[in-house]
Amino acid sequence: MLFGGMVAHLVGGAVRLGLPDALGEGEATVAELARALDARADTLERLLRALEAVELVAETGPGRYALTPAGHLLRTDHPDSRAAIARFYTDALLLDSWRELPQSVRDGSVAFERVHGTSFFEHLDGHPDRAEMFHAAMADGTRGTARVLPDAYDFAPFSTVVDVGGGDGTLISAVLARHPHLAGVLFDAPGGAARAPAVLEKAGVADRCSVVAGDFFRSLPAGDVMLLKSIVHDWDDERAATILSRCREAVSDGGRLLLVEPMLPDGPGAAGPPVPFLSDLNMLVNTGGRERTRAGFEALCAWTGFALESVRTLPAPSGNTLVEAVPV
């Protein structure tokens, strides 16, 4: 566990060097890679041997390496790429706040605001390079859900889906492509929505999806399905309730609220895999948000005019929970 941070930086460093892309589908010698990456051969070999130890590359011959199946996920051109996530989660933008974890545990304060003097999303507004890194990571993290959600939920009874905080359109594009009867609205802040038109056009759904920029704390476009992926966990209960209240105002009679989020297990001894709990603390120190249990989602829905109707785990490669609620 104590070496886990070093492993994360090993992975992030390999991506920043461009090593996975340099290897691609083939294999190469250390000398060939050193020339391609403008790196010293001796230090690059040390990096490759560490990557081999964590099973991201394999030595196919003396001094010759290729990516393993897991290593291929770090290529930027892989359909399930995690390269942008590797950059984002090993960047000082997030990690500096984690050093302040004890103080956040003591008083509930948001470490990011102490470190950077502003909130996480306000910081992104003023730093376009970091905003680009964030949005790229969110797109990478959405592809798994985009692959399975269109078939995992019955969209047939509805005509309009509003993707609230939909970023570059990865999720709404997949839903619309699978369900030609649907019209879509992608809603996000101006910076978040800027990449969406190109993604919608590439998916062939731009004619059925409008892109609307705005503030989801104030108002939302009307629709039958209000779809929010990885949105409410960014916020504390009060601000999350404000977002869901705007959803309640915008959703049609007989419509649905769909929340795609990690879910913490509930009850004594129900620890489970560590990632949702680590994400919960990441929200604490960086955004002031939190991951929630089923009871937490149920309370949030009841507070904002919804009744929780169902909870299910989405198939791999998503692994997120789909919370469905109806307006009351």
UniProtKB/TrEMBL annotation:
Pfam families: Dimerisation, Methyltransf_2. Residues 14-75 form the O-methyltransferase dimerisation domain. InterPro entries: ArsR-like_HTH, COMT-like, COMT_C, COMT_dimerisation, SAM-dependent_MTases_sf, WH-like_DNA-bd_sf, WH_DNA-bd_sf. Residues 98-306 form the O-methyltransferase C-terminal domain. One of its GO terms (biological process) is methylation. The keyword DNA damage does not apply. Gene3D superfamilies: 1.10.287.1350, Vaccinia Virus protein VP39 (3.40.50.150), Winged helix-like DNA-binding domain superfamily/Winged helix DNA-binding domain (1.10.10.10). One of its GO terms (molecular function) is methyltransferase activity. Keywords: Methyltransferase, S-adenosyl-L-methionine, Transferase. CDD domains: AdoMet_MTases (cd02440), HTH_ARSR (cd00090). The keyword Lipid metabolism does not apply. PANTHER family: O-METHYLTRANSFERASE CICE, PUTATIVE (AFU_ORTHOLOGUE AFUA_4G14580)-RELATED. This is Methyltransferase. It comes from Nocardiopsis changdeensis.
